[in-house]
């Protein structure tokens, strides 16, 4: 089953389209002829993306500048998506924090749960009835290899991505025969932009360039896999290694090792 065929009315929705993997997903979908609704807080970046994609591909791109961690703001989008023919939903927006959760800002941690997990649930439930009724639809869930593991010093992020990973792969089983595809993208590190040397994190410094996966490659592989209704996609050698280690090693052994590494990220 391929991705839904683009039509004048149908929209592909991409959350977190103002940068990184989300911007690459938007560009790839536009190149495939889909008109879009792009969502993020930085409206000026979305407007620039919309103008570029409309000029390059002749598609319609609607901008929704909103904070998806805000329940009231999100409810407006949920209502809109429930009422419109949404062909593709890419649940991509996400944030991460590092360090012991007790020392982090509680409000920001809660916003992380709202954005990474509750918004994914809300938006998916908004579009599902219409997709099932039309017998056609595609949902890309952007989880993470981090969602396979217990990660001290990245606790909220790892837990929210565990939600996304499990929700995606469970939901997929419920939709067999409906015409609605669901694919989980569960990457390890994806280099969304080349950091300046002074901004390079420990991950940037430790992982050699040839092991990094780009946003563009990740987006294309994800959308091709969504068209084939693959269960899970893990792009690149590094992601695959992290994914396997996380899925099949005892947590009692991996958690302290991974936690020490993430402590350095927190520092
Ligand atoms: N890059 C990686 O190594 C990697 C690895 C595994 C998983 N992932 C996952 O991939 C997804 C995209 O990550 P990325 O690396 O491309 O990150 P990114 O470049 O930081 O992009 C994150 C996107 O989410 C949006 N966003 C953040 N907070 C938001 C909010 N409150 N409301 C609405 N939009 C919000 C941002 O837009 P605004 O700031 O304009 O709102 C931005 O467009 C995330 O879910 C991430 O967890 C990434």
UniProtKB/TrEMBL annotation:
Family from the record: Belongs to the short-chain dehydrogenases/reductases (SDR) family.
PANTHER family to which the protein is assigned, alphabetical: DEHYDROGENASE/REDUCTASE SDR FAMILY MEMBER 7B, SHORT-CHAIN DEHYDROGENASE-RELATED
Lineage: superkingdom: Bacteria
PROSITE patterns: ADH_SHORT
Enzyme Commission identifier(s): 1.1.1.-
Protein name (record): Mycolate reductase
Keywords: Oxidoreductase
GO MF, one example: oxidoreductase activity
Segments forming domain Ketoreductase: 10-193
One GO location term (cellular component): membrane
Pfam families linked to this entry: adh_short
Annotated InterPro entries: KR_dom, NAD(P)-bd_dom_sf, Sc_DH/Rdtase_CS, SDR_fam
């Amino acid at each position: 089953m391929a991705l839904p065929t683009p039509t004048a009315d149908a929209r592909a929705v991409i959350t977190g389209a103002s940068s990184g993997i989300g911007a690459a997903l938007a560009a790839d979908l536009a190149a495939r002829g889909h008109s879009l609704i792009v969502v993020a807080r930085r409206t000026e970046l979305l407007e620039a993306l919309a103008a570029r994609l409309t000029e390059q591909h002749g598609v319609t791109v609607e901008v929704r500048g909103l904070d998806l961690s805000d329940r009231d703001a999100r409810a407006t989008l949920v209502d809109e998506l429930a009422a419109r023919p949404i062909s593709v939903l890419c649940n991509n927006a996400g944030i991460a924090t590092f360090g012991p959760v007790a020392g982090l800002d509680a409000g920001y941690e809660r916003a992380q749960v709202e954005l990474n997990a509750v918004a994914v649930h809300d938006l998916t439930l908004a579009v599902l009835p219409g997709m099932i009724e039309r017998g056609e639809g595609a949902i890309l869930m952007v989880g993470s290899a981090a969602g396979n593991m217990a990660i001290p010093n990245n606790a909220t992020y790892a837990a929210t991505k565990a939600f996304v990973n499990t929700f995606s792969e469970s939901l997929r089983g419920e939709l067999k025969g409906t015409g609605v595809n669901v694919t989980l993208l569960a990457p390890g590190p994806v280099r969304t932009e080349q950091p300046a040397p002074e901004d390079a994190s420990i991950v940037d410094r430790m992982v050699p360039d040839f092991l990094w996966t780009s946003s563009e490659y990740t987006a294309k592989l994800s959308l091709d896999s969504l068209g084939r209704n693959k269960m899970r996609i893990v792009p690149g050698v590094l992601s695959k290694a992290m994914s396997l280690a996380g899925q099949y090693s005892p947590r009692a052994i991996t958690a302290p090792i991974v936690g020490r590494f993430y402590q350095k990220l927190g520092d």
